[in-house]
Amino acid sequence: GAGVSQSPRYKVAKRGQDVALRCDPISGHVSLFWYQQALGQGPEFLTYFQNEAQLDKSGLPSDRFFAERPEGSVSTLKIQRTQQEDSAVYLCASSLAVRGGRGTDTQYFGPGTRLTVL
Amino acid sequence: AQTVTQSQPEMSVQEAETVTLSCTYDTSESDYYLFWYKQPPSRQMILVIRQEAYKQQNATENRFSVNFQKAAKSFSLKISDSQLGDAAMYFCAYRSGANFGNEKLTFGTGTRLTIIP
């Protein structure tokens, strides 16, 4: 079966432009996460969805960042008025998350989208 | 807030030898999970091994094993019989066991492992 896919793989934006990053999780996975990975750093949590509900957005760095998962499958991370500090790799991960299901919390990651803001 | 520390930015090992990557963490919780993830240059993060904090037995997965010292809050990864394909960034990660469903991970800064042929 297909893994987590993300598009585009690379995105170059001029400062001030809006961007949209897409994540296709593994089919049937309930939980979906977005992480931001700056160069040379570990990923940092941005936001979390359980089906279509965004249950945690505590990691979003500013109100320029917005994420949605309207039908509980595909998710989009949108960044408005991009700034140079937004340059990073954006990782999406999904998990099955079945209560009582051992190991179903394992997160499967996509290849990421490398965003460069000029 | 939980923190994860990886004090070795880079490590290298001869092919077929054994290497240990260090990780320490700070938490006030008693229920949690620890993970090692591997990130090759292709960027796709892959789970290597996981450890439940309530288990005293150290997890093993083929050539990969951990040394989990709960009191010391230490979680090191041992790779035996190192292979060229093991070359990657390795991240230690923590997840709280408190909230089912929101399994957000807290990562360390990573250790870059080089395998010397």
Task: Describe the overall structure.
The complex is a heterodimer of chains A (118) and B (117). Chain A has 118 residues and is mainly β. Chain A is built from no helices and eleven strands. Chain B is mainly β and 117 residues long. Chain B contains no helices and twelve strands. Chain B has strands at residues 3-5, 10-14, 19-21, 24-26, 32-39, 46-52, 60-61, 64-69, 74-79, 88-96, 106-107, 111-116. Chain B is globular, with a radius of gyration of 14 Å. Chains A and B meet through strand 4, strand 5, strand 9 and strand 10 of A and strand 6, strand 10 and strand 11 of B.
How many strands appear in the DSSP assignment of chain B?
Answer: 12
Roughly what percent helix of chain B?
Answer: under 10%
Overall geometric form of chain A: globular
What integer value in Å does the Rg of chain B equal? 14 Å
Stretches of chain A where pLDDT is under 50 for at least 5 consecutive residues are none
Q: Regarding quaternary structure, how should these chains be classified? A: heterodimer
Which stretches of chain B of 5+ consecutive residues score pLDDT under 50? none
pLDDT averaged residue by residue of chain B: 92
Beta-strand percent range of chain B: over 45%
Q: Overall 3D geometry of chain B?
A: globular
State mean pLDDT of chain A (0 to 100 scale).
92
Kindly provide the radius of gyration of chain A, computed on alpha-carbon positions and rounded to a whole number of angstroms: 14 Å
- Backbone structural class of chain B: mainly beta
Protein chain pair with the most extensive contact, residues per chain: A-B, 31 and 24 residues
**What structural category arises from helix and sheet content of chain A?**
mainly beta
In percent terms, what proportion of residues of chain A is strand?
over 45%
Main sheet attributes: strand count, strand direction, barrel closure of chain A? 7 strands, mixed
Taking the sheet with the most strands of chain B, its summary is: 6 strands, mixed
Distance between the termini of chain B: 41 Å
The number of helices of chain A is 0
